Amino acid sequence: MRVSLALPRELGDNEVSRWRALQESSPAFDNPFLSPEFTITVGELREVVQVAVLYEGPDIVGFFPFERHPMGIGRPVAAGLTDAQGLVHAKDLEIDARRLIKACGLAVYEFDHLVSGQPLLSDRHDRYPSPIIDLRDGYERYTATLKENSGKTYKSTLAKSRKLQRDAGTLRHDYAITDVGPLRTLLGWKTDQYRRTGRTDRFAHRWIVELVERLLATQTDAFAGVLDMVYVDDRPVAGHFGVRTRTTLAGWFPAYDTRYAKYSPGLIHHLAMAERAAASGIQVIDMGRGDKEYKEKLKNGELEVAEGRVATASPAAGFHWMMRVPVRKTRATVMANPLLLKTADKALKTYGRFRTVIQR
After folding, report:
1. What does the alpha-carbon distance between residue 252 and residue 204 come to, in Å, rounded to a whole number?
2. Which parts of the chain have pLDDT scores under 70?
3. C-alpha dist (Å) from residue 30 to 163, 277, 301, 310
4. Domains of the chain by range and CATH?
């Protein structure tokens, strides 16, 4: 096997077409974060992005997008933002993971949402469920499953939707819109949510805002940014921005106006989004790894992603282990313990309230 490194913008039409063909050849790769368009767009904004093109003889058999950081530390493209990571490769391809990252000039490749079936995976890596809304049997079958497994949630969401309309006006849902104005409203809600809950505001980074805007402007059959908003009496109430392939929509940035919180606008929106997505040909909405309450209420299936690293025998890999692995294991312990998770979440929200008061 031969490995050739390139910047995303250096990929030609034949290479992009081959990447897309490999992606569409396996359901495991059917996620927009693994699409060539996503890597190319991030690469326009971040010089750290590279792509390893894998050859067997004259044939391209795989693509491995990654970010190169100091000391040879490799991470997924847009690390910290994406819910699907890894190689896109030909079926039954055998790869020595350490030889691959060494050929990429890396000492370590770390990941937290590696999709299943990857040659990079080993028994040492931790696996986690990634909840999905499975629409392959249609929206009506999905809601029938919700009634069976989350009947109280489904009925109360419909009741709150009716009450919202009685109290505030007619509900309207705009799906797959491309206006920047509603997007900025959504990002403003998301920034408020990050601050309110003590999280880092991702949209304080200009490149992330520009990435989302560029993805919204990308509209093809194989890949597109998808913005949808729910309005009541023409006032925006809730929305979501994500990206899609032909059949999978990645849940990414959902948010709502907190003035309508008592009506559960996020759940109202997600049901509306699922219905419109199914009608447009989407078969799966991947909500991403994480134990959020709304995901538990809405899911009717799960995928699997992995967290860990592949490392060479090098001083840089040893330093990376000391700095990152104990922290990751501590975080995993907290996430797996409901009491610790609740305590940590409460502490973050308290910090968020103090931060909001100080900023005012």
Report:
1. 17
2. 313, 315-360
3. 38, 16, 16, 23
4. 2-129+305-352 (3.40.630), 131-303 (3.40.630.30)
